[in-house]
Design a protein that fits this description.
single chain, alpha+beta, 6-stranded mixed beta sheet, 6 strands, globular
Length: about 290
Amino acid sequence: MTADIATDVFEEHRPLLMGVAYRMLGRVADAEDVVQDAWLRWSGADLAGVREPRAYLVRITTRLAIDRMRQVRARGEAYVGPWLPEPYLTEFGAAAPDSADHAVLADSVSLAVLVVLESLSPLERAVFVLREAFGYPYAEIAALLGRGEAAVRQLAGRARRHVDERRPRYEVDPARRRELTDRFLAAAAEGDLDGLVSLLAPDVRLVSDSGGKAKAALRIVHTADKVARFLVGVARHSPPDLSPRLLETNGGPAVLLLSGGTPDSLVQLDVADGRVTTVYVVRNPDKLRHLADG
């Protein structure tokens, strides 16, 4: 395999590798670092004996991501306020040829699921991602991770039970989420308290992630009345030049709010039964910087 062919092969698989690494880490910068490390290993390896480049690259990426997860957890860094995954621009394209495939991929990268995945062990998370998001057979996952198939099945079952017990129910249809997002944004911008309450589920939650680097709620806000009042208060004190940009992040519609061309916050909603069940607000500037040109 020549150097040019090796580069082309890697670039062909880069979206897949980034998808695996991000789902395992929930952090765009860390995922990019893992994929770059995978490239260094790929470019420096003897590729003459590599018969299945896709499996080889996924194995390298998965193991590097597991190592990165263990390093992050070993550091035990304190995070100020609630933590949310770093927003990830999604455009599934040919990877999701029909609506069913799109729904599976969108669910596997949703903020709701990624928050739950944070509580899995690195191996459980790797097995869950490879099995649920990318449909790998158990035998192939076992080979990728260097584990027995029976052990992988146990990890998969434990991970799925954990996720199913904790995963909130939400609507994955992007059209329905987009329509409610538009109405939510209009009501919030107008300071329409009653209008907001009518869009929110009674037990709605608002989760703000700032990492202590921007003004945000340091605890989760509960109930429709409190969430609506919080949002109206935020709208009253927002920068006058705030402008919205609609994006697709984590498999669904989201609104990036910019001030002076700089990302100020990103808002995404979980929706069920026609009401907003969770409001996610990411304000940590380190998690928004990569969206400026999105």
